[in-house]
Design brief:
Oligomer: heterodimer
Helix content of chain A: 55-70%
Order of helices and strands of chain B: HHHHHHHHHHHHHH
Shape of chain B: globular
Shape of chain A: elongated
Largest sheet of chain A: none
CATH superfamily of chain A: MetI-like
CATH topology of chain A: MetI-like fold
Number of strands of chain A: 0
CATH class of chain A: Mainly Alpha
Structural class of chain B: mainly alpha
Distance between the termini of chain A: 46 Å
Strand content of chain B: under 5%
Radius of gyration of chain B: 24 Å
Number of strands of chain B: 0
Largest interface: A-B, 41 and 47 residues
């Protein structure tokens, strides 16, 4: 069989000499993103944070765990650019190493939520019927709790620690992803290309993963990016309540809660992690907003 | 309308059942033997067994749940392991403090958030718009615990304007009738106490209000912008109506619907934020109680409070839904 050829002058053909304008999800998104200054700002910040987290051992001027009681609560100086904390540890080094945990937990928790929620949404939306009903009512019940509170309760019962924090923050975000995926899938499954795939003998698994999932990817990416900021806030909040990473681990929320008792004597020990948390969240929110504008045609203004 | 409310109430029942099941299972999230963990490190095996029987943990799961559900239906939330007091009665003494804080925060969020959103939308592209949207971005991105600490440092320590910590200065007396200190001060004619209560309330309430305020401002802006580009607005302009008239009488009426929904959702944000805010400001409400219960491993209290806050959230959502239906007849008849 020969390849179908574009008719000369028809829609598939490009006149010679004209540059071919590539299109596709990635390219379109990139083009839209380039127009948004705030989105670029967010992206650059995220890349910087990522770089700091990956290169923490190389960038960190001191050992984040090394204590020096003689040098406790020192104000910022050349030796300690952001001062020292209540045990004489270098705040900057702890912030740098803390980025690994604080950002890592946010990103991984959202990935867990996207994976689980995506699967639930795909199953519910594509299968419909009883499965859909049972799964979505379960999601409704989980959404009936204020989400941060649910996370606090889960970690309070499971016991404090990073792993349980990760689990709790992931779990509370599952219903959001499930609902989103389901609503997208409901729209797609009625489309003709899905019926066509079915007529050609495609099995359910093949149709779901080859035809339905790719169309659901972009809203999921937007929701994930926007969710990472919230997940970082929640992870640090659990750390602040003493439920997250345990001392002496360097994690932003834990740093905040151990330093705020010294708010009068050494505000710098508190301002470092506070600023880091806010900047990281701003970065993900800016990037997420720009991505949503780029990927979601309904939100385009 | 009555039919709508009754129907919504009926849909609430299965969700409440679900909530109670989830909260019931919390005890079984405890790794290992819940009775041993709750009895503490120094408990003798006999004490652990006694506690296990007392909590009904030796029965089958369905039986345990039915026991739990029966207790709940009698308004019994269990007893604190730490103080041995009934959780429901301790809740009653702490609830007014939380409600006063939450309602004040919501009021501040609405009173500032909505006008900010309206101004932003009507003066789109202006410096004012840019400033309030940057403010909203920061507000959304600023966790309550970060803002609370900064506000505490600034207002209480650097400027010394406002007290932070507790609800009333230690040397002031107040006759409690409602448990809300500001109205109590007014009712008993105790104005110094009333002013002091307001001062104590200000920083925590402002802190708790920022995230909802920012979200309300954003939604008001985008929803109003949507409405302002509609044909009927062009018609109104064509009729020669003044701009304020158009915004207030025509655009706001339709533009407020999404705002109402978002305000309803913010109640959840405020209820969860209360745990962190009350902890920072030593506010003697249910949020701080949850924090204390976490540090003391007082599991029944955490369990009871999660259930209580979940149910409160559910009913406020119901209230918002009804308000929504009242505003938009299309929902009633759907």
């Amino acid at each position: 069989m020969t390849e179908p050829r574009a008719v000369a002058g028809g829609p598939g053909a490009l006149p010679e000499g004209l540059p071919r304008r590539e299109s596709g999800l990635m390219r379109d998104t990139w083009r839209m993103l380039r127009r948004s200054a705030s989105g670029q700002g967010g992206m650059i910040l995220i890349l910087l944070f990522g770089l700091v987290a990956v290169c923490a051992p190389a960038l960190s001027p001191k050992d984040p765990l090394e204590q020096s009681i003689a040098h406790r609560l020192r104000p910022p100086s050349f030796a300690n650019l952001l001062g020292t904390d209540e045990l004489g540890r270098d705040v900057l080094s702890r912030l740098i190493f803390g980025s690994r945990l604080s950002l890592g937990v946010g990103v991984i928790a959202v990935l867990i939520a996207m994976l689980l929620g995506g699967l639930v949404g795909l199953a519910a939306g594509f299968q419909r019927g009883l499965l859909d009903n049972v799964l979505m009512r379960l999601m409704d019940i989980m959404m009936a709790f204020p989400s941060t509170l649910l996370a606090i309760a889960i970690v309070a019962f499971r016991g404090p620690g990073l792993f349980n924090t990760l689990l709790a923050i992931g779990v509370i975000r599952v219903p959001g992803f499930a609902r989103l995926t389901r609503s997208v899938v409901l729209g797609i499954r009625e489309q003709e290309f899905v019926s066509a795939a079915r007529c050609m003998g495609g099995g359910t698994i093949r149709i779901v993963f080859h035809h339905v999932l790719p169309s659901a990817i972009s809203p999921l990416i937007v929701q994930s990016t926007l969710g990472i900021g919230g997940a970082i806030v929640e992870a640090a909040g659990l750390g602040f309540l003493g439920l997250g990473a345990q001392p002496p681990t360097a994690e932003w929320g834990t740093m905040l809660s151990s330093s705020y008792i010294y708010i009068l004597r050494a505000p710098w020990a508190m301002f470092g992690p506070a600023l880091a948390i806010v900047l990281a969240v701003v970065a993900f929110n800016l990037f997420g907003d720009a991505l949503r504008d780029a990927l979601d045609p309904h939100m385009r203004s | 309308m009555t039919k709508f409310v009754l129907w919504r109430l009926a849909t609430l029942l299965p969700v409440m059942l679900g909530i109670s099941v989830i909260v019931f299972f919390f005890i079984h999230l405890i790794p290992g033997d819940p009775a041993a963990v709750m009895a503490g490190d120094y408990a003798a095996p006999g004490q652990i067994a006694e506690l296990r029987t007392a909590l009904g943990l030796d029965e089958s799961l369905p039986n345990q749940y039915f026991r739990y559900a029966r207790r709940l239906l009698h308004g019994d939330l269990g007893r604190s392991i730490h103080t041995h007091n009934p959780i429901a009665s301790e809740l009653a003494t702490r609830l007014p403090a939380s409600m006063e804080l939450a309602l004040s925060a919501m009021l501040i969020a609405i009173v500032i958030g909505i006008p900010a959103g309206i101004l932003s939308a009507t003066k789109r592209g202006s410096l004012l718009d840019a400033a309030s949207m940057v403010g909203a971005l920061i507000g959304v991105s600023m966790p309550v615990y970060v803002l609370g600490l900064i506000a505490m440092w600034m207002f209480a320590f650097k400027l010394g304007w406002l007290p932070v910590g507790g609800r009333l200065a230690a040397d002031l007396q107040l006759q409690r009738t409602t448990g809300f200190f500001v109205p109590d001060g007014l009712l008993s004619g105790n104005f110094p106490a009333c002013v002091d209560a307001v001062k104590h309330l200000m920083v925590p309430a402002m802190t708790l209000s920022t995230v909802p305020m920012a979200i309300i401002a954003r939604i008001t802006r985008s929803s109003l912008l949507d409405c302002l580009s509609q044909d009927y607005i062009r018609t109104a302009r064509g009729k020669g109506l003044t701009e304020p008239m158009i915004v207030i009488r025509h655009a706001l009426k339709n533009g407020m619907l999404p705002v109402v929904t978002v305000i309803g959702l913010q109640i959840g944000v405020i209820l969860s934020g209360a745990v962190l805010t009350e902890t920072i400001f030593s506010w003697p409400g249910i949020g701080r109680w949850v924090y204390e219960a976490i540090t003391k491993r007082d599991y029944p209290v955490i369990q009871g409070m999660t259930l209580f806050i979940g149910v409160v959230f559910l009913f406020t959502s119901l209230l918002v839904d009804c308000l929504y239906a009242l505003l938009d007849p299309r929902i009633r008849y759907d």
